[in-house]
Amino acid sequence: MPSDIHVTRIDPADDAAVQQILDLDELVWSASGRVPRADALRDTPRRAGFVATRDGEPAGIAGSWDVELSVPTAKGGASLRPAEGLTWVGVHPDHRRRGVLGAMMAHHLRWTRDEQGRSIAVLKASEPGIYGRFGYGVASSELMSSFARGTKFAAPQSVRDIAELTTLRTTTASPDQGARWHALARECATTLPGHLVRSAEDSQRLLTDTPESRGEREPARLLWATRDGHDVGCAYFHRTPKWDDGSAAGKVGVFFLLSVDAGARLALAERLVDLDLMGSTEYWVAPDDVLALWQPSLRSMSVSGVADNLWVRLVDLPTAVAERGHAVDVDVVVQVRDEILTDQAGTWRWTAGAGVGALVRSDLEPDVVLDISDLGAVWLGGQSLAARAAAGHVTGDRDAITQLDLALRTPIGPVGTIDF
């Protein structure tokens, strides 16, 4: 018998509903119990929390953060666009594999487009095999890298000259620095695609660090980089002390590093690999990050793994195309598969001139056939349509695929972005 599944958004002012989301979350995932209830409630997605019921019983939860995503412009930069950041997705153990997840995913996509008026949804996936079937594509990837104490970065002198003009100051992370962090994040997001900027309110929560969540590490720190009285970068990090056979072997964990230019990034990186009693500095680095390019090879960074970073889902295709820059002119007919938002599936004429794209319905035979997840994968420049065609995901006329591929290419791949 088919299940009766309903998804509703909680009232942000209803404390009991917020508590229900947290209670369900602790059933879905393994809760440590270390974090005080008040702190856990502070981090619960109150703004947009969703509860799914199945046959009248609470069966699943999801949340959505108010975020901005930097998408490519026509000339190699990036511009910020509003998006919804899907989070806290989980199904109660008693209701798994009964259609609850699919109902929540479809509800969030429609809510993002129809009620929030946004063209893009994004997420960070705890499990990589789930979200492709809902139209998400892996838009950026990162390398888990470890830099030994005293690592040298082979930056050219022109970059080093800028780094030497940069002043660094270390502080303890605190909510009162949220507005400053938010302003810097928005400025950095105009440099390259792939930046995800949390709201000003969420930035304050991000910089709230509690003893119960830290374990053996120190309180979170901020390393601010300024030049001529202006913020040009910041690293969010913490140190975990360790001694190995009488030698200092502590670890620096960098949660995120923002910079407006290569000089600021160099100044921050060189400080982070030269902290007393620390043996290594670890953080996720995008393949095109200048920190990687200043090393002899990726192997020099002791890369221990590659992971998907940001997943992108287009929910309003004509708007998304108009909001994204195009590197070259294009005029192709594209057939899009979308099994959830079926009203944006079908055949479109995709044109671009002077960097500006447009999408209109077409009755012509398609030149290119693809899935909405293919577009999510290439939207930030982290993958290419040509590669996805070689894998068999994208089909059609080879010249047309190449034309659209060139229009969506970016000079530099997307950055790694903050968790949410």
From TrEMBL:
GO molecular function: aminoglycoside N-acetyltransferase activity
GO biological process: aminoglycoside antibiotic catabolic process
Family matches, as Gene3D superfamilies: 3.40.630.30, SCP2 sterol-binding domain
Signal peptide segment: none
A UniProt-annotated Pfam family: Acetyltransf_9
Statement: the UniProt record of this protein carries the keyword Mitochondrion: no
Record protein name field: GNAT family N-acetyltransferase
Residue stretches in coiled coil: none
Keywords tagged on the record: Transferase
